[in-house]
Write a structure and sequence with these properties.
Elements lengths: L4 E2 L2 E6 L3 E7 L7 E4 L3 E8 L2 E8 L4 E10 L3 E8 L18 E3 L36
Parallel strand pairs: 1-6, 2-9
Antiparallel strand pairs: 2-3, 3-8, 4-5, 5-6, 7-8
């Protein structure tokens, strides 16, 4: 990785049919996000520093059914899994990535009771639209 490149912090949590992915990086309104069934590529320049990452998902997702929202401090994505099942990890690779952390604020174990959804109050997901290929972010 170039010395002018860094990884943003990425938080993740899951439900049986969804992944919650949060990229903690301010001023990322113009981020380039390429989402496919098997991976995500993220890049954004903030404060003259390039922040980027690539992740290969553990199993396929539905990019066209997935959504995102941007705030001044982070990008939050709701990624729909192709199969309703709990994943043992986010990525195919078993190697731990230092910039990827568990989002304990939104985590729910497979054996937790109830269908409570995480609290994303203050975020306007109605403006998110689909993420398929991330070409038009409007």
């Amino acid at each position: 990785m170039n010395t002018n490149e860094r990884h943003p912090q990425v938080l993740w949590a899951q439900r049986e049919g969804l992944l919650y992915l949060t990229v903690e990086l301010h001023d990322a309104q113009d981020a380039k996000i390429d989402l496919t069934e098997s991976s995500i590529d993220f890049s954004n320049t903030t404060d003259d520093m390039l922040y980027k990452f690539h992740l290969d998902f553990y199993k396929p997702i539905n990019p066209k059914e997935s959504k995102k929202t941007l705030t001044g401090r982070k990008t939050v994505m709701l990624l729909e899994k192709q199969e309703d099942e709990w994943w043992p990890r986010l990525t195919k690779d078993t190697k731990k990535l230092a910039f990827v952390k568990t989002d304990f604020d939104h985590w729910k174990d497979s054996d937790d009771s109830g269908d409570e959804e995480p609290d994303f109050s203050g975020m306007d997901f109605s403006q998110m639209g689909g993420m398929g290929g991330m070409g038009d972010m409007a």
